C-alpha cells in the first residue's frame, strides 16, 4: 500500500499548532506578518470650494449645491453674488436691436419701461429716404448700446395725422416722461451718421448706455467713444485720399 501524505492548507496568514512547534525548533522560517489592507478612504468628487471652483458652476449647479450644503454660508453668499452678476449681464443684453411696435404697444413698451432704461423712439414712414438714413444710424447705435431700448413706429400709428414733413422724428423717454424731441433729419447735422446722432442724444442726458457704465459715466463714455471713432474715420478718409492722389 502506497505512502500517502495529506497536507492541510489553512487560511493565508493562519498558523497551526504543529507549525508553531516547528518554528520554535528552527525547522520553519519565522511566520510572515498577516496581511493588513490600508485603511479605507472613500473617494471624493468634491474639489476645494474656492473661487475658481465656484466660477465654473452654472446657476442651476449652484442651486443644486445649495440644496446639498444648506449649512455652507460661503456657498450661499457666493451663489447670491453670482446670480446678481448674471442678472446684471442679462440686463446688458436685454435689447441690442431696433424693436418695431404698433400704437397699442406704445404704453407698455415706452411709457411703462423700467425707470433705469432710456427709450429712443423713431417715428418714420416707409418710402421716405430721410427715414431710411436715420434708421441706418439708429440700427448701428442699437447694437453698440444694448442697454438702451430702441423702438420704431409708423408716425401716424403713434400720432394720428402726424405730418410727413416732420419725419423722421426722434423721441427720448425715461421714467415715463419725454426727455428729448428731435424733428427732422437736419437735427443731426448735415450728414446723418451714428456718431452725429449719438452726440445729439447725449448732449445733456445719459441716453446711450453700453451696459458697462451708469448715468453720467455712460454719457461721458459715449462722447469719448464718438470722438475717438470720428478721429479714426477722418484719418482713414485722409489716408484713402492720399492713396488716390499718389496713384494718379
TrEMBL record:
Composition skew (Pro residues), residue ranges: 30-41
Pfam families: Phosducin
Record domain Phosducin: where: 58-184
Region annotation Disordered: where it falls in the sequence: 22-62
UniProt-listed InterPro entries: Phosducin-like_chap/apop_reg, Phosducin_thioredoxin-like_dom, Thioredoxin-like_sf
Gene3D superfamilies linked: Glutaredoxin (3.40.30.10)
Family: Belongs to the phosducin family.
Protein name: Phosducin domain-containing protein
Native source species: Flemingia macrophylla
Amino acid at each position: 500500500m502506497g505512502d500517502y501524505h495529506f497536507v492541510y492548507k489553512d487560511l493565508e496568514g493562519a498558523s497551526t499548532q504543529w507549525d508553531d512547534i516547528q518554528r520554535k525548533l528552527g525547522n520553519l522560517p519565522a511566520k510572515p506578518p498577516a496581511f493588513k489592507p490600508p485603511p479605507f478612504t472613500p473617494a471624493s468628487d468634491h474639489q476645494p470650494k474656492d473661487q475658481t471652483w465656484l466660477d465654473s458652476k452654472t446657476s442651476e449647479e449652484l442651486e443644486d449645491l445649495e440644496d446639498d450644503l444648506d449649512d455652507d454660508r460661503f456657498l450661499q453668499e457666493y451663489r447670491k453674488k453670482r446670480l446678481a452678476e448674471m442678472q446684471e449681464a442679462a440686463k446688458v443684453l436685454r435689447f441690442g436691436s431696433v424693436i418695431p411696435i404698433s400704437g397699442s404697444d406704445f404704453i407698455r413698451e415706452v411709457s411703462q419701461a423700467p425707470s433705469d432704461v432710456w427709450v429712443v423712439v423713431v417715428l418714420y414712414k416707409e418710402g421716405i429716404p430721410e427715414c431710411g438714413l436715420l434708421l441706418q444710424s439708429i440700427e448701428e447705435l442699437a447694437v453698440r448700446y444694448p442697454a438702451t431700448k430702441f423702438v420704431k413706429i409708423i408716425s401716424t400709428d403713434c400720432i394720428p395725422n402726424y405730418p410727413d414733413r416732420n419725419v423722421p422724428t426722434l423721441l427720448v423717454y425715461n421714467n415715463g416722461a419725454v426727455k428729448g424731441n428731435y424733428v427732422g433729419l437736419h437735427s443731426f447735422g448735415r450728414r446723418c451718421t451714428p456718431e452725429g446722432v449719438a452726440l445729439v442724444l447725449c448732449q445733456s442726458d445719459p441716453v446711450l448706455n453700453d451696459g458697462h457704465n451708469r448715468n453720467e459715466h455712460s454719457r461721458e463714455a459715449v462722447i469719448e467713444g464718438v470722438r475717438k471713432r470720428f478721429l479714426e474715420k477722418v484719418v482713414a478718409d485722409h489716408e484713402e485720399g492720399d492713396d488716390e492722389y499718389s496713384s494718379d
